[in-house]
Amino acid sequence: MATADVIPLPATRAFSLRRQGLSGPGFATVVDAVRGTGGVYSSSPTCHLSLAARVTGFTIDDLEDELYETRRLVRLRAQRQMAYVQPVEDLPWILAAAEPGRRGRASALRQLNATYTDYERMAHKVETAMAGHEPMTLAAIKEAAPDVDDARLVVALMTRETRLVRTRPRGTWRSDSYGYARWGDWIGEAVSTVDTGEARAALARRYFTALGPATADDLRWWTGWTAGETKAVLFALRDELTEIRLGYEAPDDEVPAHVLTADLDELRASTVDPGVRLLPVWDAYPMGYKDRRRVVPPALHPRVIDPVGNATSMVLVDGEAAGVWQAGYDRLPGALVVSVALFSGAAGDRRGEIEAEAERLARSVGAADVDVEWAAERGALADGVRNTFMSPVSLGVER
Question: Cross-referenced PANTHER family, in alphabetical order (predicted)?
Answer without folding.
Answer: LMO0824 PROTEIN, WINGED HELIX DNA-BINDING DOMAIN-CONTAINING PROTEIN
